[in-house]
Amino acid sequence: EEAIFLRKKITLLRAFSLLIGSMVGSGIFISPKGVLKNSGSVGFSLVVWFACGLLSMFGALCYAELGTRITKSGGHYIYILETLGPLPSFLFLWAEFFAIRPANSAVVSLAFGRYMLEPFFAPCAAPVPAVKLVSLLGYYMVLTLNSWSVTWSARLQTALSIIKLLALALIIVPGMMLLAQGHTENFQDAFDRQSLVLDKLPLAFYAGMFAYSGWFQTSFVREELVRPERNIPLAVIVSVITVIVGYMLTNISYYTVLGTQDVLASPAVAVSFVQRAFKSLISVVPVLVALSCFGTMNGGIFTFSRTLFVASREGQWPPLFSMIHIRRHTPLPAVMLMFPLVTAMVCIGDIYHLMNFFSFSRWLFIGLATLGLIVHRHRHPELHSPFKVPLFVPVSFTIICLFTVAMSFYSDPVNISIGCTMVLSGFPVYYLIIHRQMSSRCRSPFYYLTHKLQLLLEVVQQEIKTY
């Protein structure tokens, strides 16, 4: 009775909540350990946190301009496709589906499970099987919600964003109070050069950038945004500044209350902080942190399903995943596709190894996307963009991303080599299947299976293109 397409339901407030909810997740509660371990000292770790925030702002501004130039959803994928061509975009899609996104989701899910169970087992660590079980239950709940309703997913994201900011406030306020009282002993010799190891700095940046990751999320849902030319830049700038200030104050609070050895020894830094600062809230803060991770999972599923949706629409992914539920108006097949891979990675993975594993591929392709902005400007100088950043912003951001990716081979050669192999494994798939199918425009070999699944899931192709 009505056209089937993804509605424009993401307002400015929901865009802001999507960005805050995606950035403030497990990262600020687990990454301080990784940043400190690889930077060597309190002072250098704070420099890394600020540098990561500044770098995130540069990247977010680049993506804001790309979002006003290229009017399709899909984030990194569509930007690389439109600026650098189909091969690099498919390699991104291949690495994103098989490595980046499931590993990222597994990291956030495991953090959710760990913090959710922490109050029940403190002062002991929660059993690993129980953590993984709760992690999977949380992920499946978010998966179900995103399959059911776009509106309710967006409303949940708004509510959880408020909870995230409250969780940060509960850490910042007591830390600042102690600092004002003169408790600065943990900042003595903050810049100890003897503990600085330069070849480990890329891993410190990976951990810090993981905490900030999410500044690009509005680009994935561009077609569902209300007034995207205005709301994308506005939401990006306000949200990234908010998170930079919050993260710097949170880390200062951590170091005011906890020493470097306490941070390095803690499996859950926020819980150790609460145990030391005020025991009356020992059972509250971990739950707030877990809900924060829950919001990050929600934002990740919400946005990545749109990447698969757009890739399928562009002919680089099976056609089933460009279909929408006839009543719910959600990209149901694309939402459900990540289910098996995330389950496997949660069952077998470790947080910090997973973080290094997916960070290489993620920052390689983000660097290529901002390189694409430079290329797009050169090819289309006549194109008017309502939002434009100075050229040095995409140039410096691209150079830093690609340099960090190159340096990481020295820092963690095993995990980085696995990530590189995952990217390169997409070459034969592209030339044997995707390129041949797009050139001949032949019917998909899975046509009849797709038809049966379409009937089972009650999904159809989008009827109206909103871009």
TrEMBL record:
GO terms for cellular component: membrane. One of its GO terms (molecular function) is L-amino acid transmembrane transporter activity. It is a multi-pass membrane protein. The keyword Transmembrane helix applies. It comes from the Eukaryota. PANTHER family: AMINO ACID TRANSPORTER (PTHR11785), CYSTINE_GLUTAMATE TRANSPORTER (PTHR11785:SF533). This is Cystine/glutamate transporter. It comes from Pygoscelis adeliae. The lineage of its organism: Eukaryota, Metazoa, Chordata, Craniata, Vertebrata.
